[in-house]
C-alpha cells in the first residue's frame, strides 16, 4: 500500500495525497508544491501520515479529533477541502474566526 500524507492549514483546509506524487530534490533545487493556500494569510498548521487519528488544537482552545480516513484523496495541486464532519452535509469544524494552531498525530 502507498503511504499517504495529510496536510492541514490554519484556516481548516486539508489535503491528502500519495507520497509517491512528490519528487526528491537536491539542495538548492525547487521542490514540489504540496498545497495551494486560499489566502496569503493561510499557513500550514501541520503534516501527518494518513491512516492515524488526528487531533486539532484551535485558537479558541478547543481540541477536535478527526478521523484522517474520512478525508478524500486528492492530487498535490490545489487548496484541498475544509476539514469537516459528516459525509452528507460537510459541516465545518471551525467556528467563525477560529484557526487551527497545530495538529497531533496518534500512532
What can you tell me about this protein's structure?
With 107 residues, the protein is mainly beta. The protein is 0% helix and 38% strand. The protein contains no helices and nine strands. The strands form three sheets. It has a four-stranded antiparallel beta sheet, with no helix packed on it. The chain has a three-stranded antiparallel beta sheet with strand order 5-4-9, with no helix packed on it. A hairpin with a 4-residue loop joins β4 and β5. It is globular and about 40 Å long. About 7% of the residues have low confidence.
Assembly type of the chains comes to: single chain
Largest sheet: 4 strands, antiparallel
Radius of gyration: 14 Å
pLDDT averaged residue by residue? 77
The residue ranges in which pLDDT falls below 50 over 5 or more consecutive positions are: 85-91
The SSE order reads EEEEEEEEE
**Could you give the order of strands across the largest sheet?**
3-1-2-6
Record field, number of beta strands: 9
The end-to-end span amounts to 17 Å
| SS class | mainly beta
Shape: globular
Helix content: under 10%
SS element count, helices: 0
Beta-strand content bin = 35-45%
Amino acid at each position: 500500500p502507498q503511504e499517504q500524507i495529510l496536510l492541514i492549514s490554519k484556516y481548516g483546509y486539508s489535503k491528502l495525497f500519495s507520497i509517491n506524487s512528490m519528487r526528491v530534490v537536491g539542495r538548492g533545487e525547487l521542490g514540489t508544491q504540496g498545497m495551494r493556500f486560499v489566502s496569503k494569510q493561510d499557513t500550514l498548521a501541520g503534516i501527518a501520515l494518513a491512516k492515524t487519528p488526528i487531533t486539532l488544537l484551535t485558537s479558541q482552545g478547543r481540541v477536535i479529533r478527526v478521523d484522517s480516513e474520512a478525508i478524500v484523496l486528492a492530487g498535490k495541486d490545489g487548496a484541498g477541502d475544509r476539514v469537516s464532519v459528516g459525509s452528507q452535509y460537510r459541516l465545518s469544524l471551525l467556528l467563525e474566526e477560529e484557526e487551527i494552531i497545530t495538529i497531533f498525530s496518534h500512532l
